[in-house]
Each structure stands twice: as C-alpha cells, then as structure tokens.
Amino acid sequence: MAQKGGTIWRAVFLLSLCFVPLSATVLWSEPASIPEGGEDSRASDAPRPAAQDELDLATAVRTALENHPEIMAQSRRVEAARMRPRQASALPDPMIMAGVDKLLLDGEGADYMFQVVQSFPLSDIRGRRAEVERARAKAEEAALGGVALDRALAVRMAFFDVWQWDLVIATTAKSLDLARAALDTALSRYRSASAGQADVLRAGAEQASLEASLKIAGENRLGSAASLLAAMGVSPAERDPGDLRVQAPAEPGELPELPDLLRKARSARPELGRAQALVEEAEGSSRVARAQYYPQAQILSGYMLSTMGTDSYQGMLGVSVPLWLGWRNDAASEARARAEAGRCELTGLRLDIEKEVVSSFAALKAAMVSREILLREVLPRAEAAADAALAAYASGAGDLVSLIDAQRALYEIRLEAERARVDVCRRYARLMRAVGVTEAQDPDPALDRSAHSHSGDGF
C-alpha cells in the first residue's frame, strides 16, 4: 500500500510540472486580459485600497505632461526659440571711434576727432529674418505638442498594462475558486466512495497550477507598475510600484463619426502645424534672399576739435553696391526649392495622417465587435458549460476530466474577453493619438465615452 501511495504522489508531482508551465505560458504569451469589472473582479486574496488611493488615467496623463523630463526639455527649447526673433532682427552695434586726426610735426598743434559709425540695411531684411525665427519657434511649439501626444499615449499604454495584469489576477482568482470547488467536490465523492483518489490528486494539481499562475501574474504586474511610474516621470525607486493601484478606465461605447475625426485631425495634429511652420520658414528665407539684392548703408557722424582753428562737424553717408549676383541668385533659388519641398511634404503628411486615422478607426471598430461577441455570446455559454460540468460531476453523471476541460476553456475565454476589452481601450487611445487629442482636450462629441457595462471610472 505504501508503494502504491508513493507511485500516486510521484504521478501528481509530474502532472503538476506539466500544468504549471502551461499556465505560465498562457500568462506570458498572451496580451493583457480584462475583468468583468467592479470590485468583484479583483483577486480575492489582494486587499483593496481606498478609492482615494487609486490612480485614475486622467491623473496619470496629467502628471506626465507636467513632470516628465522629455516634456520639460522640449518646453525649454520652445522658450529658447522665442528669444531668437529679436536677435535676428537687431542692427549691428555702432562703432565709436576717438583719436588724433592731425598732429603737426613741428609741435604747433593737433586736431582731435570723435566719430560714431552705424550700418543698416536699405531693405526689410531685418523683419524678414525675424519672420524666419518666428516660424522656427512655431515649429518648436508644434514639436512640443507632438511630444505631449506621444507621452500621453505612452502613459495610457503603460496604464493599460497595469490594468490588464489586475484583470489577469482577477480572472485567475475566479478560476482558482472554481478549481477549489472542483477539489471539494472530488473530496466529497472520494469520501462517499463514488470517485477514486486519482480525481482528488488531479483536482489538487489543477488548483496548484492556478495558484502558481496567480503568483506569476503578481510579479508581472509589479514590473508594469514600475513602467507606468517611469512613463509618468515618477521614479520607481522613490515610490513603491507594488503599492500602486489603478482605477479601471471607462470603455468606448459607440463608434465616433469618421468624417468628424478626419476634420479634427487636420486641425489638431501638431505634426501638420510643424510642417506648416517649416514651409513658412522656407518662405521667409526666400524673402530674406530677395532682400539681399538691396544695398547696405552706413552713416558716419563725428566732431572735430582743433587746437589750430575752429571746431567742426563731420558727417558721411556710404552705400554698398551689390555687384556679386551669383551667390544671391543661388540663395533665392535654394529658398524657393526648400519652400516647394516643404509644401510637398505637408501634402504627403496630410495623406499619412488621414490613412492613420482611417486605419485606427477600422481597428477600433473591429476590436469593439470582437469585445461584444466575446462578452455577450461566447463568455455566457462557457460559464454555463462550466456550471453544467460541475453539476454533472457532483451528481456522478460526469467525470473529472470533462469538468477540468470545461473550467480551463472558461478560463481561456475569460482571458480572451478581458484582453478584448483592453484592446478596445488601447485602440481608442491610438485613435485619439492619430486625431491629435491629448489629456487636456476632449474627443469628438460623436464619441460616446460613457463607461461600458463592465468598466470603472474616467477614461
């Protein structure tokens, strides 16, 4: 009997080694999953913090936009660019000269002079140079908008990563409860001699596999929480990622109108603003090049103090002669070519943005269809099948293998359904990035941002 018991336990050990890697592979290889919402979807053994301790998505994005070093660095570039126009349009400094104009060698006297020389252009080139610098400043401001959009998207993606592991933990906890119920049923049948010890051992192995999966999900969540803090500009070394709790974001309920999104993107995308600013810069450079065909002027004004005669005033006006036209023609041609290239790039960028919006819209539409099918059709049937399998096994009409298969199928479908919910939120975030919407802006009114029936607060 002892030899038989040892053989059974060795079989259980080998079986658990097979199930644990299988469950771990599911958690590592699949994208994040999403729970059916609310407090019941959290792991039963994980204490829930108070609501005020939870981080919502809007706060996470706002924190990044205010504190992340990438945003701050680009803000300083904008500040620096705004200082350029007045520098570019400034006149050259006047030249002040003082000296001896005439010194008689016989020692009878000398003339002393004091002169001021100022050069200035006879065209509007100074104003044109200021226009070029203002266009460059606009390009830096638009670049700041692009950095903000990218940073907001990065925070959203990191937020969803944390949320998905919360949902994996919740889903695994639900399956663990089912596995415990199956083990209790197996023990009950074993005590009544209607099932063998093998059923008890196999049910125990299934429970151990899910417990290991729950621990793995917890460790993965810790890494995702650290990534979220870093994306927000908060050091994971200063704040413990394990204490970070996030609120479930609201999920899009209805599709926005595509024409409205396209119109929004044409006006909101900072990349278009930057490309337009570069065109304005090239056009300003063309005007600067044309202004270089005009001469420069120089005014000299001075006072002569003589020890041998009367004092006198001196004034002169000089004008440059722009004889060398070759380099001026090249400069004008270069500026025109750059302006035309910028216009072509702007047109191409509009096409790329329109394609991005349409592609993101289609991806969001497909994700929402998948989510609804899984949540409203597939998942309820899988739950009913698992309940029926448990009831059949408890009554002796079914076997443990069928029960475990049904519970595993339910676990996979739950994970898939939760992944579909997260995927909708991710694709919505990418669509808003394609449109050019940041945390400080609202999406198009046609987009219903009300919470989905399974979701929490504030997207």
Attribute tags:
disordered N terminus; two-stranded parallel ribbon; 10 helices; elongated; Outer membrane efflux proteins (OEP); alpha+beta; 6 strands; disordered C terminus; 4-stranded antiparallel β-sheet; 459 residues; 65% helix
Kindly describe this structure.
This protein has helices at residues 2-29, 57-67, 69-81, 84-88, 125-191, 197-232, 258-268, 270-291, 326-395, 400-435; strands at 54-55, 95-103, 110-121, 245-246, 296-306, 312-319. A hairpin with a 6-residue loop joins β2 and β3 (110-121). It has a domain at 19-90 and 134-270 and 354-435: Up-down Bundle (Outer membrane efflux proteins (OEP)), CATH 1.20.1600. The chain is an alpha+beta fold. It is elongated, with a radius of gyration of 37 Å. Strands 2-3-5-6 form a four-stranded antiparallel sheet, with no helix packed on it. Strands 1-4 form a two-stranded parallel sheet. The model is unreliable at 1-52 and 440-459 (pLDDT under 50). The chain contains ten helices and six strands.
Could you give a short description of this structure?
The chain is of the alpha+beta class and 459 residues long. The protein is 65% helix and 10% strand.
